[in-house]
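Structure (tokenized):
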């Protein structure tokens, strides 16, 4: 029914899924630094101090981006990453508020 190649591919994929499941259970998967930097770039664009938007609108735009990003990486162990990002984002909001 299946060719030899497709059987080999099925076995290889099932092994990959088993390894991924184990890593997820152990909490060893993390968001790549490249992904975190991409999020920071997006936050920098939103929180530019020359945009001229209200603080409430800034926070609502940040909430949309952050909620989507956190939901996307929901199964990944990101406690330290989120704590560091939270501090960084609070600093960006303070900078924006001082500018107003």
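Design, position by position:
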């Amino acid at each position: 029914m299946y060719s030899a190649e497709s059987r080999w591919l099925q076995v290889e994929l099932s092994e990959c899924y088993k390894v991924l499941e184990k890593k997820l259970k152990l909490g060893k998967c993390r968001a790549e630094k490249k992904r975190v930097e991409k999020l920071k770039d997006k936050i920098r664009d939103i929180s530019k101090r020359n945009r001229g938007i209200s603080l409430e609108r800034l926070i609502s735009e940040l909430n949309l981006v952050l909620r989507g990003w956190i939901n996307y990486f929901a199964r990944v162990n990101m406690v330290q990453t989120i704590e560091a990002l939270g501090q960084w984002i609070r600093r960006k909001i303070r900078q924006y508020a001082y500018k107003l």
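Reviewer-requested clarification: The chain has a mean pLDDT of 77. DSSP finds four helices and no strands in the chain.
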